[in-house]
Design a protein that fits this description.
Layout (H helix, E strand, L loop, with lengths): L24 H43 L11 H13 L3 H23 L3 H20 L3 H23 L6
Helix pairs in contact: 1-2, 1-3, 1-5, 2-3, 3-4, 4-5
Length: 172
Protein backbone atom coordinates (compact mmCIF):
# COMPACT_ATOMS: atom_id res chain seq x y z
CA UNK A 1 0.00 0.00 0.00
CA UNK A 2 1.83 2.82 -1.21
CA UNK A 3 1.14 6.39 -0.41
CA UNK A 4 -0.45 8.43 -3.15
CA UNK A 5 1.58 11.34 -4.47
CA UNK A 6 0.03 14.69 -3.81
CA UNK A 7 -1.65 16.21 -6.84
CA UNK A 8 0.03 19.28 -8.30
CA UNK A 9 -2.24 21.93 -9.60
CA UNK A 10 -1.06 24.73 -11.85
CA UNK A 11 -2.93 27.90 -11.17
CA UNK A 12 -2.65 30.93 -13.40
CA UNK A 13 -4.21 34.20 -12.56
CA UNK A 14 -3.61 35.96 -15.84
CA UNK A 15 -6.30 35.60 -18.40
CA UNK A 16 -5.37 34.95 -21.98
CA UNK A 17 -4.64 38.11 -23.95
CA UNK A 18 -7.19 38.99 -26.53
CA UNK A 19 -5.86 39.34 -30.05
CA UNK A 20 -5.51 42.91 -31.27
CA UNK A 21 -8.22 44.01 -33.61
CA UNK A 22 -7.10 44.88 -37.13
CA UNK A 23 -7.03 48.58 -37.98
CA UNK A 24 -10.24 49.85 -39.40
CA UNK A 25 -10.29 50.50 -43.16
CA UNK A 26 -10.95 54.20 -42.49
CA UNK A 27 -7.78 54.51 -40.38
CA UNK A 28 -5.66 52.70 -42.96
CA UNK A 29 -7.07 54.78 -45.81
CA UNK A 30 -6.41 58.04 -43.96
CA UNK A 31 -2.81 57.07 -43.17
CA UNK A 32 -2.24 55.98 -46.77
CA UNK A 33 -3.70 59.18 -48.16
CA UNK A 34 -1.57 61.33 -45.84
CA UNK A 35 1.53 59.41 -46.87
CA UNK A 36 0.64 59.67 -50.56
CA UNK A 37 0.08 63.42 -50.24
CA UNK A 38 3.36 63.87 -48.33
CA UNK A 39 5.59 62.03 -50.81
CA UNK A 40 5.54 64.61 -53.64
CA UNK A 41 6.16 67.41 -51.14
CA UNK A 42 9.12 65.52 -49.67
CA UNK A 43 10.44 64.94 -53.19
CA UNK A 44 10.13 68.67 -54.01
CA UNK A 45 12.02 69.59 -50.83
CA UNK A 46 14.76 67.09 -51.64
CA UNK A 47 15.08 68.29 -55.24
CA UNK A 48 15.53 71.86 -54.03
CA UNK A 49 18.14 70.80 -51.47
CA UNK A 50 20.13 68.75 -53.98
CA UNK A 51 20.91 71.90 -55.96
CA UNK A 52 23.43 72.82 -53.27
CA UNK A 53 25.38 69.65 -54.10
CA UNK A 54 25.28 70.49 -57.82
CA UNK A 55 26.56 74.00 -57.13
CA UNK A 56 29.36 72.67 -54.93
CA UNK A 57 30.38 69.87 -57.28
CA UNK A 58 30.46 71.93 -60.43
CA UNK A 59 32.21 74.78 -58.63
CA UNK A 60 34.89 72.28 -57.63
CA UNK A 61 35.30 71.23 -61.26
CA UNK A 62 35.41 74.90 -62.31
CA UNK A 63 38.11 75.64 -59.74
CA UNK A 64 40.27 72.68 -60.74
CA UNK A 65 39.95 73.63 -64.41
CA UNK A 66 40.72 77.31 -63.73
CA UNK A 67 43.71 76.55 -61.48
CA UNK A 68 45.01 74.21 -64.20
CA UNK A 69 45.03 77.20 -66.54
CA UNK A 70 42.20 76.13 -68.83
CA UNK A 71 39.61 78.61 -70.03
CA UNK A 72 36.17 76.98 -69.75
CA UNK A 73 33.62 76.56 -66.97
CA UNK A 74 30.23 75.22 -66.00
CA UNK A 75 27.66 77.96 -65.83
CA UNK A 76 26.12 76.64 -62.59
CA UNK A 77 29.31 77.19 -60.59
CA UNK A 78 30.01 79.96 -58.14
CA UNK A 79 31.28 83.25 -59.54
CA UNK A 80 33.00 84.03 -56.23
CA UNK A 81 35.36 81.09 -56.60
CA UNK A 82 35.93 81.89 -60.29
CA UNK A 83 37.10 85.41 -59.44
CA UNK A 84 39.51 84.17 -56.77
CA UNK A 85 40.81 81.40 -59.04
CA UNK A 86 41.32 83.80 -61.95
CA UNK A 87 43.19 86.30 -59.78
CA UNK A 88 45.44 83.55 -58.41
CA UNK A 89 46.29 82.10 -61.80
CA UNK A 90 46.86 85.47 -63.53
CA UNK A 91 49.06 86.84 -60.78
CA UNK A 92 50.89 83.58 -60.20
CA UNK A 93 50.52 84.17 -56.47
CA UNK A 94 47.98 83.21 -53.87
CA UNK A 95 47.36 79.71 -55.15
CA UNK A 96 47.18 78.29 -51.61
CA UNK A 97 44.79 81.05 -50.55
CA UNK A 98 42.59 80.39 -53.59
CA UNK A 99 42.47 76.68 -52.83
CA UNK A 100 41.58 77.39 -49.18
CA UNK A 101 38.89 79.88 -50.21
CA UNK A 102 37.44 77.37 -52.69
CA UNK A 103 37.49 74.58 -50.11
CA UNK A 104 35.63 76.71 -47.56
CA UNK A 105 33.09 77.97 -50.08
CA UNK A 106 32.44 74.58 -51.68
CA UNK A 107 32.41 72.85 -48.30
CA UNK A 108 29.88 75.40 -47.08
CA UNK A 109 27.54 74.56 -49.95
CA UNK A 110 27.95 70.84 -49.29
CA UNK A 111 27.06 71.46 -45.64
CA UNK A 112 24.04 73.56 -46.62
CA UNK A 113 22.93 70.78 -48.97
CA UNK A 114 23.26 68.21 -46.20
CA UNK A 115 21.27 70.32 -43.76
CA UNK A 116 18.60 71.17 -46.33
CA UNK A 117 18.16 67.50 -47.26
CA UNK A 118 17.68 66.78 -43.55
CA UNK A 119 14.88 69.36 -43.44
CA UNK A 120 16.48 72.47 -41.98
CA UNK A 121 14.55 75.24 -43.70
CA UNK A 122 17.06 77.90 -42.60
CA UNK A 123 19.74 76.12 -44.67
CA UNK A 124 17.65 76.71 -47.79
CA UNK A 125 17.42 80.41 -46.96
CA UNK A 126 21.13 80.84 -46.23
CA UNK A 127 22.12 78.92 -49.36
CA UNK A 128 19.69 80.66 -51.67
CA UNK A 129 20.81 84.04 -50.34
CA UNK A 130 24.47 83.22 -50.96
CA UNK A 131 23.72 81.91 -54.44
CA UNK A 132 21.58 84.95 -55.29
CA UNK A 133 24.39 87.26 -54.14
CA UNK A 134 26.78 85.21 -56.26
CA UNK A 135 24.44 85.84 -59.19
CA UNK A 136 25.08 89.56 -58.79
CA UNK A 137 28.63 88.89 -59.99
CA UNK A 138 27.18 87.59 -63.25
CA UNK A 139 25.01 90.68 -63.44
CA UNK A 140 27.99 93.01 -62.88
CA UNK A 141 29.99 91.41 -65.69
CA UNK A 142 26.95 91.26 -67.99
CA UNK A 143 26.96 87.46 -68.15
CA UNK A 144 23.25 87.22 -68.98
CA UNK A 145 23.28 83.46 -69.36
CA UNK A 146 24.84 83.21 -65.89
CA UNK A 147 22.23 85.59 -64.48
CA UNK A 148 19.43 83.58 -66.04
CA UNK A 149 20.78 80.31 -64.71
CA UNK A 150 21.24 81.76 -61.20
CA UNK A 151 17.62 82.95 -61.27
CA UNK A 152 16.47 79.51 -62.45
CA UNK A 153 18.36 77.71 -59.65
CA UNK A 154 17.21 80.23 -57.02
CA UNK A 155 13.59 79.54 -58.01
CA UNK A 156 14.10 75.77 -57.72
CA UNK A 157 15.77 76.09 -54.33
CA UNK A 158 12.94 78.33 -53.12
CA UNK A 159 10.43 75.70 -54.24
CA UNK A 160 12.36 73.23 -52.10
CA UNK A 161 12.22 75.67 -49.20
CA UNK A 162 8.45 76.07 -49.58
CA UNK A 163 8.02 72.31 -49.60
CA UNK A 164 10.21 71.96 -46.49
CA UNK A 165 8.07 74.56 -44.73
CA UNK A 166 4.89 72.82 -45.85
CA UNK A 167 6.14 69.59 -44.32
CA UNK A 168 6.48 71.40 -41.01
CA UNK A 169 10.20 70.78 -40.84
CA UNK A 170 12.61 72.66 -38.63
CA UNK A 171 12.38 76.33 -39.58
CA UNK A 172 14.85 77.55 -37.01
Amino acid sequence: MGAAAPAVRLVTSASAAQPASPPSPATSATAGTASAERQPIEAQSRRGALWFYWIAGLSLVNSVVALAGLNWRFIIGLGMSQIVDTLATRSGRGLAAAILFDALLIGGFVLLGHLAVRGHAWAFLVGVTLYALDGLISLLVHDWLGVGFHVFVVILILKGFQAARQLGTRAT
